[in-house]
Design a protein that fits this description.
CATH architecture of the largest domain: 3-Layer(aba) Sandwich
Largest sheet: 5 strands, mixed
Shape: globular
Oligomer: single chain
Radius of gyration: 18 Å
Strand order of the largest sheet: 4-12-5-11-9
Number of helices: 7
Number of domains: 2
Helix content: 25-40%
Distance between the termini: 33 Å
Order of helices and strands: HEEEHEHEEHHEEEEHEHE
Number of strands: 12
CATH topology of the largest domain: Aminopeptidase
Length: about 250
């Protein structure tokens, strides 16, 4: 399992390297987006033994502050069990704990609610509306800018695979993934509008994305479940928890 978890972390770094600057401050690598300050685009993860972690936190903090980013960490507890205590001693508290789940081809249980229509997003679609649904699904009511639209357009051009789930002609759920050379992908930004929840939109969309990945020689899909309801939804289509994902942000 440890080798598999390291492969998953390697796939995360591979995708991040396409959009972010990767700066090594042993035993961490800082992944910093040049334009977008969103926390999920800017964080550090451990990549080596943690013997020097506490001593090198000031240098890592300086790297983040130089880019006007808040110091943040993401890691797998089972790979780096000591990190939580190291950060706590430095006054940095864990703010997210999520089940890390995987699905292999032999575990996959396709699901589709016939009331949900599914297809891939294209650059010809209303990208502003797609971005808005993503934000609203996560409780973010901020306005969509042209930069948000351009970013999504660029992502599609760069090979990201985003899906659309519609119910009664309305966009209900969204989400996507970026193929990697490892055949291991993370399903990200899976969100459902509140009005369409409990209708099978998220499960249908997730299943659609996993099927697309496996149809293109994918080996494994993984994700982080936001809560128990999401975890049960993903389990229905074959995802199983193998680890715990943690995040911590310095205030």
């Amino acid at each position: 399992m440890i080798e598999l978890l390291h492969t998953i972390e390697a796939s995360v770094q591979q995708v991040a390297a396409e959009a972010c600057s990767l700066i090594q401050v042993p035993p961490f690598v800082a992944m910093l987006h040049p334009d977008d300050p969103a926390p999920w685009f800017n964080y550090a993860m451990p990549i080596a033994g943690l013997e020097t972690a506490a001593a090198n936190l000031p240098a890592l903090r300086q790297v983040f502050h130089a880019q006007q980013r808040q110091l943040r960490f993401e890691w797998t507890r089972e790979l780096w069990p000591e990190l939580e205590a190291i950060l706590r001693d430095a006054g940095i508290k864990v703010d997210h704990i999520n089940p890390q789940m995987i699905c292999l081809p032999e575990q996959f249980k396709p699901y589709h609610n016939p009331a949900v229509s599914l297809r891939m997003l294209t650059t010809a679609d209303d990208l502003a509306h797609y971005r808005q649904v993503t934000r609203l699904g996560f409780g973010d009511y901020s306005a969509i800018s042209q930069a948000d639209v351009d970013s999504l357009h660029d992502a599609l051009t760069d090979g990201w695979r985003y899906a659309m789930a519609t119910i009664e002609g309305e966009l209900a759920a969204v989400g996507g993934y970026k193929p990697t050379s490892l055949g291991v992908v993370e399903l990200v930004a899976i969100a459902t509008l509140p009005a369409w929840r409990r209708r099978g939109a998220a499960a249908s969309l997730t299943s659609f994305l996993v099927a697309d990945h496996f149809a293109n020689a994918g080996k494994l899909a993984f994700l982080f479940a936001a809560d128990a309801i999401a975890q049960a939804t993903y389990a229905k289509i074959g995802f199983q928890q193998i680890a715990t994902h943690l995040a911590a942000t310095e205030e």
